[in-house]
Task: inverse folding
């Protein structure tokens, strides 16, 4: 798995391996993203959660083993964060840092290898979280330069120095013993014998930690798009008109298709290069979208979401033959459009309210992009600087994300001069964005050359018809 990926887990007791040579902790979080108290922190000083849902088993040859009893997780708990930290040096100095989840028979069910650690001394490596009645594993890789203190504070833990503070408490009521679950560790890296929990009276349970719940999400208005049955509800604003000063890439008549359930979509006669795919699905459950290569095999996924009624604008690439093929997984009616980049939403100093992943255009001078994200899952943002890029059939090489966070966030990102493409690759929730401190251009715009005026006029008409 790569950073930001997620996959479903079997709802069975799991064993996790964290490599190599880092200290490990587990935070059990409520829906508000906070611990209820110090008893929701499992670490070497308190290796067993009172519920038995998480326990550290010890370390062997640089691998820390822990058990996650998903069936024992209390109803209030919706996420388990697996945290790695180091007291000497930074995480970039840790060789082959990874976290792996294993089923009771030793089969690997999820694994994340951290490849971009920097000067952080603590990191949320992965999370196990509830989804659609089951559990999922997400590769997180969110680091904290200020170490465990910063990470703990972000999740409602009061700290003294860099370690979670423990308050004097009374012992909890005894937890009924559970029969051990047989587990066969993998042959290549056997774990230690199961950890024996201390008596319940030794497990501290402090008073709940007070927190301020976040504001409710701003509802996103929707409007029904007429068309052949089935009708799909598409969020407003509807696809925008051509941005007049956007000069990168070709304009073309949008391709539109509606359908139901799993399908393969083929759009032919498109100009080669990057395009926007606008997808709306009216169904509960999983939505997946993949480009198909010339061997009819899946490329890198454009959508991998368990959000109900998925909405989003995605960045795809039309190959040199002008034939874009996409494989869609959906459990209900859907509507898909292929649009030119110039039809993407244009950033300005006016707030923009949207939902889901998106592709945004910036044509002005330097500015700061202010984003307020109200979702619960990943927010991942990439920038593509096009000012000195003269090939409209490709995008510049990706330089890494400028935002990669989880949960409600307020982020401000400095933008260089346009033309610039802002790609919200992951954003499973409502968000708003606007430009601040916008400056005039200091040089003539470039990037693909000026678009043909006749083509723009045609595309304006096509897009207007698509909005009726």
Result:
């Amino acid at each position: 798995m790569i950073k930001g990926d997620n996959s479903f887990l079997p709802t069975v007791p799991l064993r996790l391996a964290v490599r190599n040579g880092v200290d490990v902790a587990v935070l059990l979080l409520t829906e508000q993203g906070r611990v209820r108290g110090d008893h929701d922190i499992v670490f070497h000083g308190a290796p067993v959660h009172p519920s038995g849902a998480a326990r550290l088993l010890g370390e062997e040859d640089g691998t820390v083993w822990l058990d996650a009893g998903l069936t024992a997780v209390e109803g209030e708990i919706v996420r388990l964060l697996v945290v790695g930290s180091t007291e000497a040096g930074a995480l970039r100095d840790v060789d082959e840092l990874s976290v792996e989840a294993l089923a009771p028979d030793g089969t690997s069910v999820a694994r994340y290898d951290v490849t971009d650690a920097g000067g952080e001394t603590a990191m949320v490596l992965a999370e196990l979280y509830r989804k659609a009645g089951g559990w999922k594993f997400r590769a997180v890789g969110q680091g904290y330069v200020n170490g465990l203190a910063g990470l703990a504070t972000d999740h409602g833990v009061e700290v003294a120095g860099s370690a979670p503070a423990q308050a004097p408490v009374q012992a909890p009521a005894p937890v009924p013993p559970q029969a051990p679950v047989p587990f066969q560790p993998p042959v290549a890296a056997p774990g230690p014998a199961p950890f024996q929990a201390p008596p319940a009276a030794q497990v501290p349970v402090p008073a709940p930690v007070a927190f301020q719940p976040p504001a409710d999400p701003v509802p996103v208005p929707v409007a029904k798009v007429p068309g052949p049955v089935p009708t799909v509800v598409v969020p407003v604003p509807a696809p925008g008109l051509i941005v007049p000063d956007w000069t990168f890439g070709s304009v073309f008549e949008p391709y539109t298709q509606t359908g139901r359930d799993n399908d393969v979509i083929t759009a032919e006669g498109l100009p080669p290069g990057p395009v926007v795919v606008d997808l709306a699905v009216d169904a509960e459950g999983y939505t997946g979208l993949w480009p198909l290569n010339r061997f009819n095999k899946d490329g890198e996924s454009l959508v991998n979401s368990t959000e109900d009624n998925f909405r989003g604008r995605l960045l795809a690439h039309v190959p040199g033959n002008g034939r874009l093929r996409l494989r869609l997984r959906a459990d209900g009616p859907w509507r898909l459009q292929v649009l030119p980049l110039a039809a993407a939403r244009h950033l300005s100093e006016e707030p923009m309210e949207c939902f889901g992943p998106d592709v945004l255009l910036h044509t002005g001078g330097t500015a700061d992009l202010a984003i307020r994200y109200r979702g619960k899952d990943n927010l991942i943002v990439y920038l593509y600087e096009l000012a000195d890029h003269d090939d409209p059939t490709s995008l510049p090489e990706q330089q890494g994300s400028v935002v990669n966070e989880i949960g409600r966030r307020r982020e401000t990102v400095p933008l260089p001069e346009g033309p610039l493409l802002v790609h919200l690759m992951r954003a499973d929730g409502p968000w708003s964005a606007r430009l601040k401190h916008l400056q005039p251009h200091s040089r003539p715009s470039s990037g693909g050359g000026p678009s043909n005026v006749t083509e723009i006029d045609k595309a304006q008409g096509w897009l207007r018809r698509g909005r009726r």
Observations:
- Residues 172 and 440 are 63 Å apart (CA to CA).
- The first strand starts at residue 6 and ends at 9.
- The chain has two domains: 6-202, 232-467.
